[in-house]
Amino acid sequence: MTDGACALVLASSGFLRRNPQCKALARLAGVAWNTDSYRIDSNRLHALSAARAAWSDALGRAGLRNANDFDVIELEAPTGWHEAAFVRAFGIERADTVSPSGGAFAQNPIFCNGLVNAAEAVLQVAGQAGPVQLLRVRRAAAHGCHGLAQQGHVVAVFETPGVAA
């Protein structure tokens, strides 16, 4: 069992201009989601179509090409199988970018892992991730799933304010 709290506050660039005392920790450069069939069969589980579509759409919205454009990728992966599947589906080649927070291996707050991953990604680009902080993180992705068989996927791309795609 896990107990805790997590929140992200989203603010527009207009709000930040009108409130200079507020400093953005990160910029949301792109976000996308996709939901697959609720039918559980080997084709759906193997293809990870919704995960791939959400990943591709989020990268496109952020003006990015592939996983190599990230310094950190926080995956919702409660098991090693999940991590291996998402690493392959998203074309991640650098193991050092994957879930420096420990992800769901460190804890598993079911149905809010994606929000926790988003907070971890923001902390990384803000340089405030504490003992798991990686050096020179400018861009991070956060992945989350929903549904009893992970048929829904959300991917958010965060970057250091001022970083252009």
Task: Report a brief summary of the structure.
The protein is α+β, with helices and mostly antiparallel strands.
How would you characterize this protein structure?
- The chain has 165 residues and is α+β, with helices and mostly antiparallel strands.
- It has a single domain (25-159), classed as 3-Layer(aba) Sandwich (Peroxisomal Thiolase, Chain A, domain 1).
- Helices cover 33% and strands 17% of the residues.
- It has helices at 13-18, 42-47, 49-62, 80-90, 103-106, 113-126, and strands at residues 27-35, 72-74, 139-146, 152-159.
- The protein has a four-stranded mixed beta sheet, with helices on both faces.
- A hairpin with a 5-residue loop joins strand 3 and strand 4 (152-159).
Question: Secondary-structure map with pairings?
Answer:
Elements (H helix, E strand, L loop, with lengths): L12 H6 L8 E9 L6 H6 L1 H14 L9 E3 L5 H11 L12 H4 L6 H14 L12 E8 L5 E8 L6
Parallel strand pairs: 2-3
Antiparallel strand pairs: 1-4, 3-4
What are its keywords?
165 residues, alpha+beta, 6 helices, globular
- What coarse outline follows from CA principal-axis ratios? globular
| Class computed from helices, strands and strand pairing | alpha+beta
By CATH, the architecture is named 3-Layer(aba) Sandwich
> Biggest sheet: strands, sense, closure?
4 strands, mixed
- The CATH C-level class name: Alpha Beta
Total number of strands? 4
